Each structure stands twice: as structure tokens, then as C-alpha cells.
Amino acid sequence: MRKTVGQHCHMLSRLRVNTTLFALPPEHQKHQLGRSRKYGDKMGSATTLANEFHGRATTFSINLYGKQRNVLAFDNIMMLKTLKCAVRVVWIYRRSQWVALFTTDLDLTVAQIIGYYGARWRIKAGSKRSSRKSVAQKAKPEIAVPLPTISISA
User: Fold this and answer.
1) 79 with 69: CB under 8 angstroms?
2) Which of 13, 52, 60, 154 sees the fewest Cβ atoms within 10 Å?
């Protein structure tokens, strides 16, 4: 995917529950033989890590879906083998469920990641409304209005 879209384009998406996450690779030692590791230790799946990090989650006040909401979330920078790069993973805890989001833009804050992902649903709802309007406008008969004529005398 990174080869297709390039290095200057970032991704933000929901993470599958069975995705295996890895720690960041250790630094290359000065007199180390061989190449340095691409990935760190295997941390586990998104589900096991969500249960592990639940106690370390903090509350963020975020404007989401038109209201100020308190969201319990935790983030960590990890490696994904599918993308072959470091990602910021955000676990969001609501009631009895959790959702894991990831982004390749490591500069985004937790609040920005949640806000951008929430805005995604607003775009979908807006596109449904606009498509309904366009269908309604097509159903209305158009009325031809004559344009005024302008005469120029030289």
C-alpha cells in the first residue's frame, strides 16, 4: 500500500481485532554483526493489548458528533508488518466495547485521531443527504426562464 500511495500520504483506519502488533526495533549496536532487526518483539494481538492497556487509559474531552464527549483512550507507537512501518495505535474504550484505530502520521495527537475518524462518519452522512437532494432535484421539472436580450449600438 505504501508503494502505491507514497511516503507523503498518511493513513487513518480501524485496526482489526486479530492484527498482530510488534514493538519498535532496537537500535543498531556499534559492533553488532549482521543487519539490524526490522521489527521488535511480538507484543500480541489488538485484543490482548486492549485488555492489557485498559488500566492505563486516560480520559480525553473531544468534540465528537456535535457534542463535547469524554472518551477513555490509550495510545502507543508500534510496528505493523502489513504496512512495514511504525504506526500510532489508539485504543478507545466505550462501555463494554473497545475500538483500535491506527495512523501512519506519528505527529497526530489522540484527540486529533479520534476527531478525524469521527469526521469520517459525518462525511458519509452528508453524502447521503446530498445524494437525496440530487435525486429530489432531478424529479422536479425544470422551468425555462427566458434570458433578457442586450443590444449594443455602436
Assistant:
1) no
2) 154
Nearest to 113 by CA among 123, 125, 101, 100: 101
Task: Give the contacts of 40 (CB within 8 A, at least 6 positions apart).
Answer: 22, 23, 24, 25, 26, 79
Distances (CA, A) of 84 to 15, 78, 80, 107, 139: 15, 11, 6, 18, 50
CA proximity to 91, closest of 67, 123, 56, 122: 56
> pLDDT tens digits for 87-136?
999 999 987 889 999 999 999 999 999 888 888 766 555 555 555 555 44
State whether residue 23 is helix, strand or coil: coil
Contact of 20 with 41, CB cutoff 8 Å:
no
pTM above 0.70, yes or no: no
Are the beta carbons of 99 and 14 closer than 8 angstroms?
Answer: yes
Coil, helix or strand at residue 42: strand
Closest alpha carbon to 3 in 87, 82, 105: 82
